[in-house]
Amino acid sequence: MRTKTQVYVYTDDDGNERWLDVDTMRRWAESNLELTRIAIDSSRVEELISSGDLDKEQIRKNIETGHPKPVLICLDLVKEGYQIVDGNHSYVTSALAAGLAKQMGIHKEQHSGVDGWALTPDQWRPFLISRQIQSTQQNAQT
Predict the structure, then answer these.
(1) Which of these, 114, 100, 96, 91, lies nearest to 35 by C-alpha position?
(2) Is the separation of the CB atoms in 59 and 89 below 8 Å?
(3) pLDDT digits (tens, 9 = 90+) for 19-31
(4) What is the model's pTM?
C-alpha cells in the first residue's frame, strides 16, 4: 500500500526543481521547536490571494474554528528569503482576522501575526527529497 506524502516543490537558485517532505518536517517541528509568532507581510498576503491558489472554503473553516494550523516557513530557501512551505491558508486567515480586528478597534500589535515555525537551512535541509526518489516518482506518474 502506498502512502501519500505532502511535498513542497520549488525551483532552487540554480534552476533545479527540489522537493521538501512537508509532512515529516511538520512532525519534526511539532516535536522539536517551540511555536513562535511570525509577523505577517501584507505584500505576501496580497501575492497569495492574487495567485488564485487558495481554497476559500479552507479559509472559511479556519475562521469558523478560530484555530488555523501553524505555518511552516523555510528561511533562505531561495535568494528572495523565506518561503511558506505549508500553511498559506492559515497565514491569510490570520491576516484577515488582524485586519478585521483593526477595523473594529480591538487590534493589539503584540497579538498580530501567525503561529508557526521558521526553520533555518540546517533545520530544513534534512527534509529535501533526494533527486533519485524524485525521478522515480515522476516516472511512476507517466
Answers:
(1) 114
(2) yes
(3) 999 999 999 999 9
(4) 0.77
